Amino acid sequence: MNFSKLPLSIVQIVRDIGPGGGINGVAYNLGIQFKKKGIETQNLTLGKAKKEPMGRSIFFSKIKLMKEVVQFTVFGTFRARKRFLKSSDQSVVLCHADVLYGDVYVNHGLHLAMLRRSENRFRIIVRNPFHLFLLLREWLRFYFNIHSVIVCFSDREKRELLEVYPKIKSEVVVIPNGIDLDIYRPGPPQDNCDLRLSFGLGLEDLCLVFVGHEFDRKGLKLVIEALALLPNHVKLVVVGGGSQSKIDQYKKIAEKLAVENRVKFLGQRSDVASLLNMCDLFVLPSFYETWALVGVESMACGLPVLMCPVGGITEYLHDGHNGFEITRDPKDIADKVKYFIDVPSAVSRMGEKAISTAKKYAWSSVADSYIALFSKIGCDKLNRANR
Hints:
The structure is a single chain. This protein is an alpha/beta fold. It folds into two domains: 9-178 and 362-385, Glycogen Phosphorylase B (Rossmann fold, 3-Layer(aba) Sandwich); 189-361, Glycogen Phosphorylase B (Rossmann fold). It contains 17 helices and twelve strands. It has helices at residues 22-36, 46-49, 61-84, 111-117, 121-127, 130-143, 155-164, 189-198, 215-218, 220-227, 244-256, 272-277, 293-300, 313-316, 330-342, 345-358, 363-385, and strands spanning 9-13, 40-44, 92-95, 104-106, 149-152, 171-174, 206-211, 234-239, 263-267, 281-284, 305-307, 323-325. The protein has a six-stranded parallel β-sheet with strand order 2-1-3-4-5-6. β5, α7 (155-164) and β6 (171-174) form a beta-alpha-beta unit. α13 packs across α16. The longest helix is centred in the first third of the chain and has 24 residues, at 61-84. The chain is globular, with a radius of gyration of 22 Å.
């Protein structure tokens, strides 16, 4: 589609933006695609809302994160409303998180829905009362219908949004998340072998990979417990984790189960695609996800995925076709892994189908869906301005 002649300007509101995963990566990739299609694009980030130096201590990382969230919620909302609410600026404003302003809001997750699904919801709130701030902000966003349009990544997430907040009057549309197929694709076999060997993993090992920062929600403990039920040649690579203290906590779990020599904790990495390519299966037993973009990224690298059927995961994970649905039960996870031990050809067979699935979610086509939505909103704004 050719959007270059449309009188359209887009402003993305996001706390931070840059390559990688998470919300900032989504905004970054959308911005690249918008510019490629000839659309003027700007960003309103935390640095542009209120710049304040922050320390680097790991001990205070959570405090700093909370401070950033509050800063951007308050100052970002004020800045956006001041610029767009009472001006002639006809830009379409796309809000990704925090700020309570924007024509379109991308629903990257429902905090209330996540807590409802957690087995320890009350303990989570008691240990970190900041969740109450996030719940209040979420309620304000949807109760007062701050945004004209809300984007959900899947039909399932759309239904959940309307169930949790039934009084929403905003239009709710479904646009899936995308991936960069130039980065996430099968790597050269020799490079994959060399990288695996560099981490002390055998070429005959069956390597599982877990990628994520929120170990508790995403079920890393369950994967480690499943590993203890599997033969010694099954290994686990863990990417992410945030602070070293959190990683150390899970290292102790592996030690307690006597599988510490079979788990590689790599921490936060910039070469996630290469790490996915050196492994065989992706595992993620989350109790809550909106989309789990890393699942599609793993598929694009040719890995069958083992994931809980939550959120938008059911849109791309087809049980027995490109992976398996799993429960949050170590035995069930282990049983699904054993299938690939018993039928080794299933790794490549399901992996090929996973690649075919992932190709449907290229950022270019996802951006086209957003721009079509923005064009409609932009035309409505121009019509109102010309009345």
